[in-house]
Amino acid sequence: MYRIGAPFSASEKDSLQELGIDYLQMDWTVSQLQDAIELDSLQAGVLQPNFFEEDEDMAATALSRGGWVGITSTEHYWNKKIGNVLLDQDPTTSWVWPALAAESFDLSSTYRSRGVLLVLGGRFLVREVRFRPAPDRPDHFFERFKIGVKDEGFDTFRIPWFPTLIEVKENTSPDVRVILDPPITTEAIQLEIIRDTPKEIGIADLEIYGGGFVGAAAYESDVIDLENLASFGEIHWSGRQDFLARVDIRTRTGTDPQPEILWKAREEQQDSVKFLQGGGTLNFTEYKRQYGKISEFLKPVNIENWASPDTENWSFFSSPYDFLDSGIRVVSEGPKQFIQIRADFTSTVTDGGKIDYIQFKASVPPSVRRLVGEIFPTKTTLGEPTSFTYYITPTIRSGDLSFDGLEISTPSGVQAVDSLRIGGIDQREFSSTIDSDGSGFELMLPRELTTADSGTLIEVVFRAPVLREVGTRFEGRVFHSDHPHEVRQEIVSGDANQDVESDQLTVTTSLSNTLLYAPKVSPNPFTPNADGINDVVNISYKLLRVISAVPISVEVFDLSGRLIKTLYSGVDPLGEYE
Question: Is the pLDDT of residue 458 over 50?
Protein backbone atom coordinates (compact mmCIF):
# COMPACT_ATOMS: atom_id res chain seq x y z
CA MET A 1 0.00 0.00 0.00
CA TYR A 2 1.45 3.34 -1.10
CA ARG A 3 0.17 6.52 0.54
CA ILE A 4 0.86 10.21 -0.11
CA GLY A 5 -0.17 12.64 2.62
CA ALA A 6 -1.44 11.96 6.13
CA PRO A 7 0.54 9.00 7.54
CA PHE A 8 -0.89 5.59 8.32
CA SER A 9 -2.29 5.35 11.83
CA ALA A 10 -0.98 2.74 14.24
CA SER A 11 -4.12 0.63 13.80
CA GLU A 12 -3.86 0.83 10.00
CA LYS A 13 -0.25 -0.35 10.16
CA ASP A 14 -1.20 -3.23 12.46
CA SER A 15 -4.02 -4.26 10.13
CA LEU A 16 -1.78 -4.20 7.05
CA GLN A 17 0.92 -6.18 8.83
CA GLU A 18 -1.60 -8.83 9.91
CA LEU A 19 -2.61 -9.24 6.27
CA GLY A 20 1.02 -9.42 5.14
CA ILE A 21 0.75 -6.18 3.17
CA ASP A 22 3.77 -3.88 3.06
CA TYR A 23 3.24 -0.13 3.15
CA LEU A 24 5.17 2.96 2.10
CA GLN A 25 4.51 6.50 3.32
CA MET A 26 5.28 9.52 1.10
CA ASP A 27 5.08 13.26 1.74
CA TRP A 28 3.03 15.83 -0.20
CA THR A 29 6.05 18.13 -0.43
CA VAL A 30 7.92 15.69 -2.72
CA SER A 31 6.29 16.77 -5.95
CA GLN A 32 6.85 17.95 -9.51
CA LEU A 33 4.12 20.59 -9.53
CA GLN A 34 2.55 22.77 -6.84
CA ASP A 35 0.44 25.42 -8.55
CA ALA A 36 -1.58 27.63 -6.16
CA ILE A 37 -1.31 25.01 -3.41
CA GLU A 38 -1.31 26.28 0.19
CA LEU A 39 2.19 25.61 1.49
CA ASP A 40 1.37 25.81 5.21
CA SER A 41 -1.26 23.12 4.82
CA LEU A 42 1.10 21.08 2.70
CA GLN A 43 3.67 21.06 5.49
CA ALA A 44 0.91 19.95 7.87
CA GLY A 45 0.06 17.03 5.60
CA VAL A 46 -3.04 18.43 3.85
CA LEU A 47 -3.35 19.23 0.15
CA GLN A 48 -5.63 22.18 -0.61
CA PRO A 49 -5.77 25.30 -2.80
CA ASN A 50 -4.48 28.64 -1.57
CA PHE A 51 -6.83 30.40 0.81
CA PHE A 52 -6.61 33.71 2.68
CA GLU A 53 -9.00 35.49 5.00
CA GLU A 54 -10.35 38.82 3.75
CA ASP A 55 -8.34 40.80 6.32
CA GLU A 56 -5.08 38.88 5.82
CA ASP A 57 -2.26 40.71 4.02
CA MET A 58 -0.82 38.28 1.47
CA ALA A 59 2.17 40.49 0.74
CA ALA A 60 3.40 40.23 4.33
CA THR A 61 4.17 36.51 3.92
CA ALA A 62 5.26 36.55 0.27
CA LEU A 63 8.99 36.26 1.05
CA SER A 64 8.42 33.16 3.22
CA ARG A 65 6.75 31.47 0.23
CA GLY A 66 9.65 32.19 -2.11
CA GLY A 67 8.15 35.41 -3.48
CA TRP A 68 9.98 38.71 -3.78
CA VAL A 69 9.50 42.40 -4.40
CA GLY A 70 11.66 44.55 -6.65
CA ILE A 71 11.84 48.19 -7.74
CA THR A 72 13.26 49.26 -11.09
CA SER A 73 16.32 51.42 -11.37
CA THR A 74 17.20 53.77 -14.24
CA GLU A 75 18.83 50.82 -16.03
CA HIS A 76 15.46 49.05 -15.97
CA TYR A 77 16.55 46.12 -13.81
CA TRP A 78 14.88 44.93 -10.60
CA ASN A 79 16.50 45.94 -7.32
CA LYS A 80 15.14 43.38 -4.87
CA LYS A 81 17.22 44.59 -1.92
CA ILE A 82 15.58 47.98 -1.62
CA GLY A 83 12.19 46.49 -2.49
CA ASN A 84 12.04 44.49 0.76
CA VAL A 85 11.36 47.64 2.79
CA LEU A 86 7.84 47.60 1.37
CA LEU A 87 7.06 44.29 3.12
CA ASP A 88 8.91 44.71 6.43
CA GLN A 89 5.79 45.82 8.37
CA ASP A 90 7.71 48.96 9.43
CA PRO A 91 5.94 52.14 8.23
CA THR A 92 9.00 54.28 8.98
CA THR A 93 11.15 52.54 6.34
CA SER A 94 10.43 53.46 2.75
CA TRP A 95 11.77 53.72 -0.75
CA VAL A 96 12.08 57.32 -1.88
CA TRP A 97 12.37 58.62 -5.41
CA PRO A 98 14.22 61.94 -4.99
CA ALA A 99 12.85 65.16 -6.43
CA LEU A 100 14.01 66.23 -9.85
CA ALA A 101 15.14 69.70 -10.75
CA ALA A 102 12.19 71.59 -12.13
CA GLU A 103 14.19 72.92 -15.06
CA SER A 104 15.27 69.40 -16.08
CA PHE A 105 11.88 67.68 -15.64
CA ASP A 106 10.67 66.39 -19.00
CA LEU A 107 7.20 64.89 -19.40
CA SER A 108 8.32 63.08 -22.56
CA SER A 109 11.23 61.30 -20.82
CA THR A 110 11.17 57.51 -20.60
CA TYR A 111 12.78 57.81 -17.14
CA ARG A 112 9.75 59.44 -15.52
CA SER A 113 8.32 56.07 -14.39
CA ARG A 114 9.37 53.37 -11.95
CA GLY A 115 7.99 49.89 -11.51
CA VAL A 116 7.29 47.87 -8.35
CA LEU A 117 6.86 44.15 -8.96
CA LEU A 118 5.51 41.88 -6.22
CA VAL A 119 5.74 38.13 -6.84
CA LEU A 120 3.40 36.50 -4.32
CA GLY A 121 5.06 33.10 -4.16
CA GLY A 122 1.96 31.36 -5.50
CA ARG A 123 -1.29 32.07 -7.30
CA PHE A 124 -3.90 33.82 -5.18
CA LEU A 125 -7.23 35.57 -5.41
CA VAL A 126 -6.61 39.35 -5.17
CA ARG A 127 -9.41 41.77 -4.29
CA GLU A 128 -7.57 44.87 -3.07
CA VAL A 129 -4.19 46.61 -3.41
CA ARG A 130 -3.11 49.12 -0.76
CA PHE A 131 0.01 51.29 -0.53
CA ARG A 132 1.11 54.44 1.29
CA PRO A 133 4.20 56.58 2.00
CA ALA A 134 5.81 56.94 5.42
CA PRO A 135 3.36 58.45 7.94
CA ASP A 136 5.55 61.53 8.51
CA ARG A 137 5.76 62.22 4.75
CA PRO A 138 2.20 62.27 3.41
CA ASP A 139 3.43 64.64 0.70
CA HIS A 140 5.30 61.67 -0.86
CA PHE A 141 2.08 60.45 -2.48
CA PHE A 142 2.21 60.06 -6.26
CA GLU A 143 -0.45 61.47 -8.54
CA ARG A 144 -0.42 58.88 -11.26
CA PHE A 145 -0.03 55.08 -11.25
CA LYS A 146 -1.03 51.91 -13.04
CA ILE A 147 -1.73 48.42 -11.66
CA GLY A 148 -1.22 45.35 -13.82
CA VAL A 149 -1.37 41.59 -13.22
CA LYS A 150 -0.06 38.65 -15.19
CA ASP A 151 -1.00 35.09 -14.42
CA GLU A 152 1.53 33.48 -16.74
CA GLY A 153 5.22 32.72 -16.78
CA PHE A 154 7.38 35.82 -17.24
CA ASP A 155 11.06 36.75 -17.26
CA THR A 156 11.96 37.89 -13.74
CA PHE A 157 15.40 39.16 -14.77
CA ARG A 158 14.31 41.92 -17.10
CA ILE A 159 11.20 44.03 -16.74
CA PRO A 160 8.17 42.22 -18.21
CA TRP A 161 5.19 43.97 -19.70
CA PHE A 162 2.05 43.58 -17.60
CA PRO A 163 -1.30 44.50 -19.15
CA THR A 164 -2.79 47.49 -17.33
CA LEU A 165 -5.77 46.57 -15.20
CA ILE A 166 -6.35 49.92 -13.51
CA GLU A 167 -4.92 53.41 -14.18
CA VAL A 168 -5.34 56.41 -11.86
CA LYS A 169 -4.24 59.79 -13.26
CA GLU A 170 -5.21 62.30 -10.56
CA ASN A 171 -4.53 60.77 -7.17
CA THR A 172 -4.32 63.13 -4.18
CA SER A 173 -4.48 60.63 -1.30
CA PRO A 174 -1.43 59.29 0.56
CA ASP A 175 -3.31 56.14 1.66
CA VAL A 176 -4.38 54.43 -1.57
CA ARG A 177 -6.84 51.53 -1.66
CA VAL A 178 -7.65 50.05 -5.07
CA ILE A 179 -10.53 47.54 -5.30
CA LEU A 180 -10.33 44.96 -8.08
CA ASP A 181 -13.83 44.19 -9.29
CA PRO A 182 -14.09 41.39 -10.19
CA PRO A 183 -11.27 39.85 -8.13
CA ILE A 184 -8.26 38.54 -10.06
CA THR A 185 -6.34 35.30 -9.63
CA THR A 186 -2.66 36.03 -10.16
CA GLU A 187 0.87 35.23 -9.04
CA ALA A 188 2.34 38.72 -9.55
CA ILE A 189 1.24 42.36 -9.32
CA GLN A 190 2.98 45.30 -10.93
CA LEU A 191 2.62 48.86 -9.68
CA GLU A 192 3.89 51.43 -12.17
CA ILE A 193 4.57 54.86 -10.71
CA ILE A 194 4.50 57.70 -13.26
CA ARG A 195 5.83 61.21 -12.54
CA ASP A 196 3.63 64.10 -13.54
CA THR A 197 5.52 66.56 -11.29
CA PRO A 198 9.18 66.74 -10.23
CA LYS A 199 8.36 66.48 -6.47
CA GLU A 200 9.88 63.82 -4.22
CA ILE A 201 7.70 60.70 -3.91
CA GLY A 202 7.95 57.46 -1.97
CA ILE A 203 6.26 54.31 -0.75
CA ALA A 204 6.64 52.62 2.65
CA ASP A 205 4.06 49.80 2.66
CA LEU A 206 2.53 47.61 -0.01
CA GLU A 207 -0.36 45.34 1.01
CA ILE A 208 -2.42 42.81 -0.94
CA TYR A 209 -5.75 41.41 0.24
CA GLY A 210 -7.86 38.62 -1.19
CA GLY A 211 -10.24 36.50 0.81
CA GLY A 212 -11.29 33.07 -0.36
CA PHE A 213 -9.97 30.22 -2.43
CA VAL A 214 -7.95 30.60 -5.58
CA GLY A 215 -10.05 29.60 -8.60
CA ALA A 216 -7.80 26.81 -9.86
CA ALA A 217 -4.94 24.88 -8.28
CA ALA A 218 -2.99 21.79 -9.32
CA TYR A 219 -0.64 19.27 -7.78
CA GLU A 220 1.47 16.55 -9.34
CA SER A 221 3.30 14.04 -7.22
CA ASP A 222 6.86 13.11 -7.94
CA VAL A 223 7.15 10.07 -10.21
CA ILE A 224 6.79 7.06 -7.89
CA ASP A 225 9.25 4.27 -8.69
CA LEU A 226 7.82 0.90 -7.66
CA GLU A 227 11.23 -0.70 -8.39
CA ASN A 228 9.69 -3.39 -10.60
CA LEU A 229 6.68 -3.97 -12.79
CA ALA A 230 3.49 -3.72 -10.76
CA SER A 231 -0.20 -4.49 -11.08
CA PHE A 232 -2.41 -1.72 -9.71
CA GLY A 233 -5.40 -2.28 -7.46
CA GLU A 234 -7.78 0.18 -5.85
CA ILE A 235 -7.04 3.86 -5.30
CA HIS A 236 -8.44 5.46 -2.15
CA TRP A 237 -8.44 9.00 -0.79
CA SER A 238 -9.74 10.96 2.14
CA GLY A 239 -10.75 14.59 1.98
CA ARG A 240 -13.50 17.11 1.37
CA GLN A 241 -15.19 18.52 -1.71
CA ASP A 242 -17.47 21.50 -1.06
CA PHE A 243 -20.77 21.73 -2.90
CA LEU A 244 -19.69 24.24 -5.58
CA ALA A 245 -16.13 22.93 -5.91
CA ARG A 246 -14.46 20.07 -7.77
CA VAL A 247 -11.54 17.91 -6.73
CA ASP A 248 -10.27 15.82 -9.66
CA ILE A 249 -7.77 13.04 -9.00
CA ARG A 250 -6.00 11.46 -11.97
CA THR A 251 -3.24 8.90 -12.53
CA ARG A 252 -0.79 7.99 -15.28
CA THR A 253 1.71 5.16 -15.56
CA GLY A 254 4.96 4.66 -17.47
CA THR A 255 8.04 2.59 -18.10
CA ASP A 256 10.74 5.17 -17.29
CA PRO A 257 11.21 7.89 -14.62
CA GLN A 258 10.44 10.89 -16.86
CA PRO A 259 6.89 11.40 -18.25
CA GLU A 260 7.90 14.40 -20.36
CA ILE A 261 10.56 14.78 -23.00
CA LEU A 262 12.55 17.78 -21.81
CA TRP A 263 14.38 19.88 -24.37
CA LYS A 264 17.89 21.14 -23.70
CA ALA A 265 19.10 24.25 -25.52
CA ARG A 266 22.64 24.06 -26.98
CA GLU A 267 24.06 27.52 -27.41
CA GLU A 268 27.00 26.51 -29.59
CA GLN A 269 24.85 24.56 -32.05
CA GLN A 270 21.96 27.03 -31.62
CA ASP A 271 19.40 24.26 -31.38
CA SER A 272 17.52 22.17 -28.82
CA VAL A 273 17.84 18.43 -28.18
CA LYS A 274 16.14 16.05 -25.78
CA PHE A 275 17.47 16.86 -22.32
CA LEU A 276 17.86 13.21 -21.30
CA GLN A 277 20.13 12.56 -24.29
CA GLY A 278 22.73 14.57 -22.44
CA GLY A 279 22.37 12.49 -19.29
CA GLY A 280 20.15 14.98 -17.47
CA THR A 281 18.17 13.76 -14.47
CA LEU A 282 16.36 16.92 -13.35
CA ASN A 283 12.71 16.72 -12.41
CA PHE A 284 10.30 18.91 -14.34
CA THR A 285 10.13 21.69 -11.72
CA GLU A 286 13.92 22.11 -11.52
CA TYR A 287 14.21 21.81 -15.28
CA LYS A 288 11.79 24.68 -15.83
CA ARG A 289 13.69 26.85 -13.33
CA GLN A 290 16.97 26.32 -15.15
CA TYR A 291 15.33 26.60 -18.55
CA GLY A 292 14.11 30.07 -17.62
CA LYS A 293 17.71 31.32 -17.62
CA ILE A 294 18.39 30.31 -21.23
CA SER A 295 18.58 33.02 -23.88
CA GLU A 296 15.21 33.67 -25.45
CA PHE A 297 16.30 33.02 -29.04
CA LEU A 298 17.15 29.40 -28.15
CA LYS A 299 13.76 28.61 -26.63
CA PRO A 300 10.82 27.22 -28.61
CA VAL A 301 8.31 29.91 -29.48
CA ASN A 302 5.59 28.37 -27.30
CA ILE A 303 6.24 27.77 -23.61
CA GLU A 304 4.42 24.41 -23.81
CA ASN A 305 7.16 23.22 -26.15
CA TRP A 306 9.74 23.36 -23.37
CA ALA A 307 8.52 19.85 -22.68
CA SER A 308 6.40 17.39 -24.63
CA PRO A 309 4.59 14.26 -23.42
CA ASP A 310 6.51 11.01 -23.78
CA THR A 311 3.61 9.13 -25.33
CA GLU A 312 5.83 6.19 -26.27
CA ASN A 313 6.65 5.29 -22.66
CA TRP A 314 3.84 6.94 -20.67
CA SER A 315 0.07 6.98 -20.72
CA PHE A 316 -1.84 10.25 -20.62
CA PHE A 317 -3.42 11.26 -17.33
CA SER A 318 -6.64 9.34 -16.81
CA SER A 319 -10.08 10.88 -16.73
CA PRO A 320 -10.80 12.13 -13.20
CA TYR A 321 -11.94 9.60 -10.65
CA ASP A 322 -15.30 10.33 -9.02
CA PHE A 323 -14.32 12.04 -5.76
CA LEU A 324 -17.37 10.59 -4.03
CA ASP A 325 -16.39 7.05 -5.05
CA SER A 326 -13.13 6.39 -3.21
CA GLY A 327 -11.99 2.80 -3.64
CA ILE A 328 -12.24 2.51 -7.42
CA ARG A 329 -9.62 0.52 -9.29
CA VAL A 330 -6.71 2.39 -10.86
CA VAL A 331 -7.66 2.79 -14.52
CA SER A 332 -4.18 3.64 -15.84
CA GLU A 333 -2.55 0.81 -17.72
CA GLY A 334 -0.40 -1.80 -15.98
CA PRO A 335 1.78 -3.59 -15.27
CA LYS A 336 4.13 -0.60 -15.13
CA GLN A 337 7.05 0.36 -12.89
CA PHE A 338 6.27 4.07 -12.55
CA ILE A 339 3.11 5.93 -11.56
CA GLN A 340 2.25 9.60 -11.03
CA ILE A 341 -0.78 11.16 -9.33
CA ARG A 342 -2.33 14.55 -10.13
CA ALA A 343 -4.97 16.52 -8.24
CA ASP A 344 -6.81 19.51 -9.71
CA PHE A 345 -8.92 21.85 -7.56
CA THR A 346 -11.63 24.02 -9.11
CA SER A 347 -13.01 26.40 -6.48
CA THR A 348 -15.29 29.34 -5.94
CA VAL A 349 -14.39 32.09 -3.47
CA THR A 350 -16.26 30.29 -0.67
CA ASP A 351 -16.19 26.63 -1.76
CA GLY A 352 -13.03 24.59 -2.12
CA GLY A 353 -11.71 21.18 -1.21
CA LYS A 354 -8.86 19.34 0.44
CA ILE A 355 -7.20 15.94 0.33
CA ASP A 356 -5.78 14.33 3.46
CA TYR A 357 -4.18 11.45 1.61
CA ILE A 358 -4.23 9.43 -1.59
CA GLN A 359 -3.24 5.79 -1.46
CA PHE A 360 -3.16 2.94 -3.95
CA LYS A 361 -2.50 -0.76 -3.80
CA ALA A 362 0.03 -2.47 -6.06
CA SER A 363 1.46 -5.97 -6.38
CA VAL A 364 5.20 -5.83 -7.05
CA PRO A 365 6.04 -7.77 -9.14
CA PRO A 366 2.74 -8.66 -10.90
CA SER A 367 1.38 -12.20 -11.14
CA VAL A 368 2.91 -12.72 -14.59
CA ARG A 369 5.20 -10.71 -16.81
CA ARG A 370 2.59 -10.02 -19.48
CA LEU A 371 -1.08 -10.83 -20.01
CA VAL A 372 -2.74 -10.26 -23.39
CA GLY A 373 -6.37 -10.91 -24.24
CA GLU A 374 -8.97 -10.47 -26.98
CA ILE A 375 -12.61 -11.38 -27.50
CA PHE A 376 -14.52 -12.76 -30.49
CA PRO A 377 -16.89 -11.90 -32.04
CA THR A 378 -16.53 -8.14 -31.67
CA LYS A 379 -19.94 -7.36 -33.19
CA THR A 380 -23.31 -8.73 -32.20
CA THR A 381 -27.02 -7.94 -32.21
CA LEU A 382 -28.17 -5.58 -29.51
CA GLY A 383 -29.81 -7.45 -26.63
CA GLU A 384 -29.39 -10.94 -28.13
CA PRO A 385 -27.40 -13.51 -26.08
CA THR A 386 -24.20 -14.33 -27.95
CA SER A 387 -21.55 -17.01 -27.52
CA PHE A 388 -18.23 -15.24 -26.97
CA THR A 389 -14.73 -16.69 -26.80
CA TYR A 390 -12.26 -14.88 -24.55
CA TYR A 391 -8.64 -15.57 -25.55
CA ILE A 392 -5.77 -15.05 -23.07
CA THR A 393 -2.03 -15.55 -23.61
CA PRO A 394 0.22 -15.14 -20.54
CA THR A 395 3.98 -14.59 -20.46
CA ILE A 396 5.25 -16.31 -17.31
CA ARG A 397 8.82 -15.98 -16.05
CA SER A 398 10.66 -17.80 -13.30
CA GLY A 399 9.73 -16.29 -9.96
CA ASP A 400 6.33 -15.00 -11.09
CA LEU A 401 3.45 -15.69 -8.71
CA SER A 402 1.38 -16.95 -11.67
CA PHE A 403 -2.37 -17.62 -11.32
CA ASP A 404 -5.02 -20.34 -11.06
CA GLY A 405 -8.16 -18.24 -11.50
CA LEU A 406 -9.59 -15.48 -13.65
CA GLU A 407 -12.52 -13.10 -13.60
CA ILE A 408 -14.32 -11.60 -16.58
CA SER A 409 -16.74 -8.70 -16.33
CA THR A 410 -20.02 -8.95 -18.25
CA PRO A 411 -21.61 -5.49 -17.87
CA SER A 412 -24.88 -6.56 -19.49
CA GLY A 413 -25.22 -9.85 -17.63
CA VAL A 414 -24.13 -13.42 -18.34
CA GLN A 415 -26.21 -16.53 -19.01
CA ALA A 416 -23.67 -19.35 -18.77
CA VAL A 417 -19.98 -20.27 -18.82
CA ASP A 418 -19.73 -23.13 -21.32
CA SER A 419 -16.15 -24.32 -21.71
CA LEU A 420 -12.43 -23.86 -21.00
CA ARG A 421 -9.51 -24.82 -23.21
CA ILE A 422 -5.80 -24.57 -22.34
CA GLY A 423 -3.37 -25.10 -25.19
CA GLY A 424 -6.23 -26.35 -27.38
CA ILE A 425 -7.22 -29.09 -24.90
CA ASP A 426 -10.69 -29.06 -23.37
CA GLN A 427 -10.64 -28.84 -19.59
CA ARG A 428 -13.48 -30.56 -17.78
CA GLU A 429 -12.33 -29.99 -14.22
CA PHE A 430 -12.96 -26.31 -13.93
CA SER A 431 -15.52 -24.42 -11.89
CA SER A 432 -17.23 -21.09 -12.48
CA THR A 433 -19.27 -18.77 -10.29
CA ILE A 434 -21.54 -16.09 -11.72
CA ASP A 435 -21.80 -12.88 -9.68
CA SER A 436 -25.13 -12.45 -7.94
CA ASP A 437 -25.88 -9.33 -9.99
CA GLY A 438 -24.78 -10.94 -13.27
CA SER A 439 -22.05 -8.37 -13.80
CA GLY A 440 -19.37 -11.00 -14.31
CA PHE A 441 -18.06 -14.40 -13.34
CA GLU A 442 -15.04 -16.10 -11.79
CA LEU A 443 -13.48 -19.22 -13.24
CA MET A 444 -11.06 -21.51 -11.39
CA LEU A 445 -8.55 -23.36 -13.56
CA PRO A 446 -7.91 -27.04 -12.88
CA ARG A 447 -4.31 -26.17 -11.91
CA GLU A 448 -1.85 -23.33 -11.39
CA LEU A 449 -0.10 -22.26 -14.55
CA THR A 450 3.71 -22.45 -14.57
CA THR A 451 6.58 -21.19 -16.72
CA ALA A 452 5.91 -24.20 -18.98
CA ASP A 453 2.56 -22.58 -19.83
CA SER A 454 4.14 -19.29 -20.92
CA GLY A 455 2.70 -18.40 -24.34
CA THR A 456 -0.05 -21.01 -24.05
CA LEU A 457 -3.47 -19.93 -25.36
CA ILE A 458 -6.35 -20.01 -22.86
CA GLU A 459 -9.90 -19.95 -24.27
CA VAL A 460 -13.03 -19.26 -22.22
CA VAL A 461 -16.43 -19.63 -23.92
CA PHE A 462 -19.45 -17.94 -22.33
CA ARG A 463 -22.86 -16.61 -23.34
CA ALA A 464 -23.93 -13.03 -22.62
CA PRO A 465 -26.02 -10.22 -24.15
CA VAL A 466 -24.71 -6.76 -25.02
CA LEU A 467 -27.04 -3.92 -24.15
CA ARG A 468 -24.98 -0.89 -25.19
CA GLU A 469 -24.45 -0.10 -28.85
CA VAL A 470 -21.46 2.22 -28.51
CA GLY A 471 -19.20 -0.51 -27.15
CA THR A 472 -19.08 -2.83 -24.15
CA ARG A 473 -15.68 -3.74 -22.72
CA PHE A 474 -15.30 -7.21 -21.23
CA GLU A 475 -12.49 -6.57 -18.75
CA GLY A 476 -10.57 -9.53 -17.38
CA ARG A 477 -8.16 -10.19 -14.51
CA VAL A 478 -6.24 -13.14 -13.15
CA PHE A 479 -5.51 -14.07 -9.54
CA HIS A 480 -4.04 -16.80 -7.34
CA SER A 481 -6.39 -18.40 -4.83
CA ASP A 482 -3.58 -18.91 -2.29
CA HIS A 483 -2.77 -15.17 -2.27
CA PRO A 484 -6.12 -13.38 -1.82
CA HIS A 485 -4.58 -10.00 -0.90
CA GLU A 486 -2.49 -9.63 -4.04
CA VAL A 487 -3.82 -7.29 -6.73
CA ARG A 488 -5.68 -9.09 -9.48
CA GLN A 489 -3.69 -8.44 -12.66
CA GLU A 490 -5.58 -6.85 -15.53
CA ILE A 491 -5.66 -8.46 -18.96
CA VAL A 492 -4.43 -6.02 -21.61
CA SER A 493 -6.07 -6.04 -25.04
CA GLY A 494 -3.83 -7.27 -27.84
CA ASP A 495 -3.14 -10.14 -30.21
CA ALA A 496 -3.67 -13.16 -27.95
CA ASN A 497 -4.69 -15.47 -30.82
CA GLN A 498 -3.11 -14.98 -34.24
CA ASP A 499 -6.01 -16.82 -35.89
CA VAL A 500 -8.55 -14.22 -34.71
CA GLU A 501 -8.67 -10.68 -36.10
CA SER A 502 -9.84 -8.90 -32.98
CA ASP A 503 -6.99 -7.58 -30.80
CA GLN A 504 -9.57 -5.96 -28.52
CA LEU A 505 -11.82 -6.64 -25.55
CA THR A 506 -14.69 -4.40 -26.68
CA VAL A 507 -17.88 -5.56 -28.43
CA THR A 508 -20.13 -3.26 -30.45
CA THR A 509 -23.69 -3.76 -31.68
CA SER A 510 -25.93 -2.66 -34.51
CA LEU A 511 -27.74 0.64 -33.96
CA SER A 512 -31.16 0.54 -32.35
CA ASN A 513 -33.87 3.12 -31.76
CA THR A 514 -35.37 1.49 -28.69
CA LEU A 515 -34.46 1.70 -25.02
CA LEU A 516 -36.67 -1.19 -23.89
CA TYR A 517 -35.88 -4.49 -25.58
CA ALA A 518 -37.94 -7.68 -25.57
CA PRO A 519 -40.52 -6.79 -22.92
CA LYS A 520 -42.48 -9.92 -21.91
CA VAL A 521 -45.64 -10.48 -19.90
CA SER A 522 -46.19 -14.14 -19.06
CA PRO A 523 -48.77 -15.51 -18.96
CA ASN A 524 -50.75 -13.15 -21.12
CA PRO A 525 -53.54 -12.69 -20.31
CA PHE A 526 -53.25 -13.36 -16.58
CA THR A 527 -56.22 -13.77 -14.26
CA PRO A 528 -55.51 -13.03 -10.58
CA ASN A 529 -58.76 -14.51 -9.22
CA ALA A 530 -57.23 -17.01 -6.78
CA ASP A 531 -58.30 -20.06 -8.77
CA GLY A 532 -54.69 -21.26 -9.03
CA ILE A 533 -54.59 -20.70 -12.81
CA ASN A 534 -52.55 -17.81 -14.25
CA ASP A 535 -52.78 -15.96 -10.94
CA VAL A 536 -49.11 -14.85 -10.99
CA VAL A 537 -47.65 -12.77 -13.80
CA ASN A 538 -43.96 -12.35 -14.66
CA ILE A 539 -42.94 -9.07 -16.30
CA SER A 540 -39.40 -8.82 -17.77
CA TYR A 541 -37.50 -6.48 -20.06
CA LYS A 542 -34.01 -5.36 -21.07
CA LEU A 543 -32.96 -1.75 -20.68
CA LEU A 544 -30.63 -0.78 -23.55
CA ARG A 545 -28.32 2.02 -24.69
CA VAL A 546 -28.45 4.27 -21.62
CA ILE A 547 -25.04 5.37 -20.29
CA SER A 548 -26.25 6.11 -16.74
CA ALA A 549 -29.15 5.20 -14.47
CA VAL A 550 -32.58 6.47 -15.60
CA PRO A 551 -36.04 6.63 -13.97
CA ILE A 552 -38.05 3.43 -14.47
CA SER A 553 -41.61 2.59 -13.46
CA VAL A 554 -43.79 -0.49 -14.05
CA GLU A 555 -47.52 0.25 -13.81
CA VAL A 556 -50.74 -1.71 -14.36
CA PHE A 557 -53.82 -0.09 -15.94
CA ASP A 558 -57.30 -1.41 -16.63
CA LEU A 559 -58.87 -1.32 -20.07
CA SER A 560 -60.29 2.15 -19.46
CA GLY A 561 -56.79 3.54 -18.79
CA ARG A 562 -57.24 3.84 -15.00
CA LEU A 563 -54.05 3.21 -12.98
CA ILE A 564 -54.55 0.11 -10.85
CA LYS A 565 -51.11 -0.41 -9.31
CA THR A 566 -47.50 0.82 -9.46
CA LEU A 567 -45.48 -2.36 -9.21
CA TYR A 568 -42.07 -0.70 -9.25
CA SER A 569 -40.55 2.76 -9.32
CA GLY A 570 -36.81 3.40 -9.22
CA VAL A 571 -33.67 4.57 -11.01
CA ASP A 572 -31.79 1.82 -12.86
CA PRO A 573 -28.80 1.40 -15.19
CA LEU A 574 -28.90 -0.74 -18.30
CA GLY A 575 -29.46 -4.45 -17.73
CA GLU A 576 -32.06 -7.20 -17.60
CA TYR A 577 -34.95 -6.81 -15.17
CA GLU A 578 -37.70 -9.18 -14.04
Answer: yes
